[in-house]
Amino acid sequence: MTLVFALLPWISAGFLLGRRFRYRDAFAVTAWAGLVAIPGQLLTYLLGWINESMSGVHTGFGVLLPVEDPPSKLMAGLGTFLDQGIGPLALWYVLVLALGAAAVTGGERRRVVLTVGAAWLAVMAVVAVVAGLVAPGA
Questions:
Q1: pTM for the model
Q2: Residue-wise pLDDT tens digits, 126-137
Q3: 4, 26, 47, 72: most buried by Cβ count inside 10 Å?
């Protein structure tokens, strides 16, 4: 996944903003930014262990959704977007990714953060739609 997610800062900071940014540098930034996922994974496993099930475990804003058994396609897609798209841990990852890209490219931080953030939201919206389409349910 790191290989795929490295395309996000590479295209947004390198191509859209016109900065010199090699894919190798984007991969390094993405790999280092991926370390912020460790507390999220630990929290997810801890919540799963406490609940004795991984179903219904949310570490983002997906916890605000009503519990449906089985979840509908809309709730599955919305839960994906709220957890992995705009949840606190996801925003932390995107911020570290964008700040790393800004540091490596030498670009203006505000522009890089806005560009990478907008690209992240677009990609996560597509991921949420696909998750909703392939989810079992009504």
A1: 0.88
A2: 999 999 999 887
A3: 26
Beta-carbon contacts of 14 under 8 Å, excluding residues fewer than 6 positions away, are 20, 21, 22, 26, 105
pLDDT in tens, 79-99: 899 988 999 999 999 999 999
Note every long-range contact of 57-63, with CB atoms under 8 Å and residues 24 or more positions apart, other chains counting.
58/82, 58/83, 59/83, 59/87, 59/89, 60/84, 60/86, 60/87, 60/88, 60/89, 60/90, 61/86, 61/87, 62/87
Q: Collapsing DSSP states into helix, strand and coil, what is residue 99?
A: helix
Helix (H, G, I), strand (E, B) or coil at 49: helix
Report helix, strand or coil for 4: helix
Among the listed residues 88, 92, 95, the one whose alpha carbon sits nearest the alpha carbon of residue 9: 95
